[in-house]
Amino acid sequence: MTTTARYPALTFRQDYFADGAAWTAFVSLLQDTFGIDIDPLQRLGGPDPSCMPFGWFDADGTLVASLAAFALPLTINGRKLRAAAFQSGAVRPAWRGRGLYRDVTLKALEWCKAEGFEAIVLYTDKPALYEPYGFHSLPLHLYIGAAPAPRAPTVSQSLDPWQPGDLALLQRALRTRTPVSDCLAVCESAAMFLINTQFDPDVRLSWMEGEQAVIAWKMDGERFILLDVVAPAIPALAAILGGLDVQPDVAEVRFRPDKIAWSGEPQPLDGATRFMIKADFPVTLDTPAMLSPMADF
Ligand SMILES: CC(C)(COP(=O)(O)OP(=O)(O)OC[C@H]1O[C@@H](n2cnc3c(N)ncnc32)[C@H](O)[C@@H]1OP(=O)(O)O)[C@@H](O)C(=O)NCCC(=O)NCCS
Prior knowledge:
Aminopeptidase; alpha+beta; seven-stranded mixed beta sheet
């Protein structure tokens, strides 16, 4: 814990997740700022073990300024990148405009440098906040096209992360997964996958025993939306449709479909959120791609 003359009423802490009160203060800041509840993560295996939170707390133990960094190994353009990610960046309204976010950003950048990460990625709707530090945006694209005819139906079962047996199966699959795409994908990131199952009630998880694959998917009318595949080898889309026993007209795939024996048309992802990267070397995407929404952080 440290204090400085600049913020005499505040105390700086990092790596504080093991302290229950500080974790609760962190959950509360994210709830108040973004309207999301990440507390269920504690019962879904806990935060990413590499996560390093940086924060300024007031005398009552309220977290007023936060940024966290965690290891997020990525595959980009066929190359494995030892990347870190920034998340949970927020400052309470009463404390904004005093340099607190710049302070936690500089601390997080310093930590990433000391840890030897090759790159840092983040999502933001305020790219101007990060451009001064050398971050630039990468365009994101999903893929849409006619769905293939499903292969002969095979057996699949629904998974519920709140069932201990299903959670253990999911955690095992996440530990041994291969990236869902060679163009842009996470290599692991179990904690984010598990908490992301809680944010969209339409997301379904299915286990295809034969393929040893977890499929994250949803339906939008007749459109089948494939969000992620967690498996040691990625099955073809036709096999996935057969396994789920669905026969949609249209498929939408929220990652570059280079491993699922199907092609669609790339379409820019809607919305104000940008995906940014900072690396010591130029990074652009060789082909249109996006990170699976199950990796959102
Ligand atoms: C964005 C936010 C974190 C800024 O916090 P802050 O403590 O007021 O920021 P600071 O005072 O440290 O300002 C740091 C720099 O960012 C700039 N900045 C502040 N808010 C900004 C914004 N909305 N857009 C672009 N730049 C911004 C400041 O001008 C300052 O620039 P300088 O270093 O050149 O002087 C805060 O407004 C917030 O929590 N907003 C809601 C949540 C959010 O958007 N989080 C970021 C998610 S990626």
